[in-house]
Amino acid sequence: MGKPRRTVQAVVSELRRRRVLRVAAVYAAVGFVVLQVAELLVPALLLPDWIFRAIVVATLLGFPLALVLSWAIEMTPEGPRRTARTGGLSAASARATLGLGFVLVVFLGGAMGWWYLQSTESEMDAAERTPVIAVLPFEDMSDARGDEHFAAGVAEDILNHLAVIRTMRVVPRQSVARYAGSELGVREIARELGATHLVLGSLRRDEERVLIGVQLIDASSDRQLWSDRYDRELTAGAIFETQGEVARRVAQVVGARLTADERGRLASVPTASVTAYDYVLQGRQYAYREQLDRAAALFRQAIEQDSTYAEAYAELSFVYSAMEGAQSAGEHWVDSARVAARTAISLDPDFAGGYSTLALAQWNGGQLRRAVPNYERALRLQPNDPMAVWGFAFLQWNLGHLDQALALARRAERLAPDRPANSALVGRCHLSLRQYDEAERAYLRALRVQPDNAWALGELGLTYVNAGRLDEAEDVLATIRRLLSNSPTHFLAAGGMALLRGDYEEARVHFERSYADPSAPTARPYGELGFVYSRLGRTEQANAMWRRLASEADTTDERNGAMRSLAVMYAVRGDTAEALRLLDRAYERGWRGWPYPDIRLNPLFADLSLIHI
Fold this sequence. Notes:
Elements: H1 2-17, H2 20-44, H3 49-72, E1 73-76, E2 79-82, H4 91-129, E3 132-135, E4 139-140, H5 148-163, E5 169-170, H6 173-176, H7 186-193, E6 197-205, E7 209-218, E8 223-233, H8 236-254, H9 260-266, H10 274-288, H11 292-305, H12 310-326, H13 330-347, H14 352-364, H15 368-381, H16 386-398, H17 402-415, H18 420-432, H19 436-449, H20 454-466, H21 470-483, H22 488-501, H23 504-516, H24 526-535, H25 539-552, H26 561-572, H27 576-588
Parallel strand pairs: 3-5, 3-6, 4-6
Antiparallel strand pairs: 1-2, 6-7, 7-8
């Protein structure tokens, strides 16, 4: 009995002498701190999830390495040197030491791994317990029955107040709008929206007062958890105060914690003019119906009433950005959008909408890299804004940052799973990464929500083409022809399939119809038409298309479309060196082969013999 005890004592003494136990304790403490810091910083900096996993794996793998190094090497004033052996440790004791060290490594490494798994499971449980709030459009109870826009706007701003709170998730307005006046029951609406709680309400106003009734419903039990009626003077201050109070009460009832900063933002008063506020609420409704000129006029009227109203400038900026895509003279609207957004930021530096609309205007103007910090700022202020998350994801995709884009697109899909564009962007990221099965699943999710979604249908067909599943691509084309006949999506998809088959005459017919469609000014296939004209021997028409392409290509734009299209022109003309130079520039600007991640599949570059991207 005495000999084993002496052996253990000798082993422990040797571990202490070599400072192995001290290194193990310090490494475990430092590793814990590193993982905690990484857990906070990775989502805050909008980094992809794999970075945190990599930090965890590196920390765990570094543990046994640190113990081995502490056993073999000691630090001296002269620098590191191999630890000297002592004569007090027998061969048996040395073997026991190594065995004990191995057990220690396995135990402590397992303990750290167990902690990580437990914390991950706790995070998943916490995510499942996160309250998900849907604010349905309020019922207009005014005598004149002309205040639908006001009732809907007050409900939307309560939603915007709740979206400030990080410890809850809010169903976006686009998802709940269709339930205005719905006869569906609370449980059915909540199930379709993925909500745990519903906020219902009504509004009545006259010339002097406003009466707002609100109730919070537990979706699982259809039980009313809280309700209140607010009879207030019809002033902007009273309305904003009521919205903030409702948001605080809802958060309190569902158990969401508020930070001091969040409380401050819930108490803010964006404008002192109820007339300006009314103009903004009217303008929003016109903007949602894509009546952009009327919406812009109303936002300008709001600014005339209160020139310090930051939200009115942000709404105006958003409409100007929408005009850039819908009307001619786009550069004018982009400049106006940037000016309006910067004015919003100067008036309220803590208003997330100012930064997200500025980022959108910069993106539309081809200033992609300048948009990045503004999206980051917007999401720090309002992390659960699905439109800003989606916009940032799409921007990162355009910049070629595919892992970051995919992480953000998945986040947007979690925030608003019933918005097809979120699932479609997840699919596009997977397709760009050549993850064809995952891309297919994402596009099918979008199509379950909206079976005739043009984006998802078109890119599902592209996914099958890239994966070599041409029969399924033809099936998708048949679906597009049935659901979206004579649409730009139909013409481009049909032209693309004909191009792949080498049927240039059929491709010409479809691309010409897409080119002539005024509803798709940004989808005109200059490169494709120039290519098929060249293949058909229509040299004059091909040259005319190349001249049009060259005249409209803005090579200062940070987006890569112009470079890619010009590369097609030079490739067809046989100028391989210039085509490759332009493709290199497109790659620098984020192009990753789209729409063919394997560029060798792209028929437009068939004249280039060797391309490595």
